[in-house]
Specification:
It is a single chain. The chain has ten helices and seven strands. The chain has about 240 residues and is of the alpha/beta class. The chain has a single domain, classed as Rossmann fold (3-Layer(aba) Sandwich). The chain has a seven-stranded mixed sheet. Helix 3 links the parallel strand 1 and strand 2. Helix 2 runs parallel beside helix 9 and helix 6 runs antiparallel to helix 7.
Amino acid sequence: MSGSISSYRKMVEEPWGKMFYEQIFDQLVLPSDKRLNILDFGAGFCITSKHYAENHDVTSVEPNEEMYSVRFDGAYNLITKGIEYLSEIEDNTFDVVICHNVLEYVDDKAAILKELCRVLKPGGRLSVIKHNVFGRAMASAVFGDDPGAALDLLRGEKEDSMFGNRDVYPNEFLTDLFSGEMTPEDVFGIRAFFGLSKNNEIKYTEDWFENMLELELKASRMDEYKRIAFFNHLIFRKN
């Protein structure tokens, strides 16, 4: 396993990694009394798949062997393929489609999104989590002490990452693409505050975690903080 994937795997179990997923599960609430058919496209370590598979039927698609080899075990069905798997799925198959932090790393976002919309049932929900350029610029300038990197982001330049070039595209790309097909249902922020402090020691204390999680959950629904959150979480419903 590469060092970057290994470090990433460890990070998701740190307090700040756990808080990221706590926010997702608070924002994407699914009924526990009705089993839904869910596609988790680009499932990574399958943390989200594991969570929703407790009450639903989850298909987890992840082509990166380094990631799925150290995945979180759960009652989901792992498919070790990538984009090509979407063409194997029939129209109107899934009640919920999840695509978290995936589209930044692909060239033809529109083609993948059209496929995700196609396999979603009418009335079904699509959950997209994406990097937010304004939040990333904040983190680069404050946490990273790198105003040059922040300027590059605001100029629209792509970033290097462990998964290749990261294209931090705007929310409007999604809303414009889905016009007429999907209705925007919710927009949330994720990581408005907890990624700006370098004091990691305090993040292991119970008081910090509880208070910071409450703060993040409140801020995630406030327009002012959605605009500067590190990630945005957009939920659409298929017409």
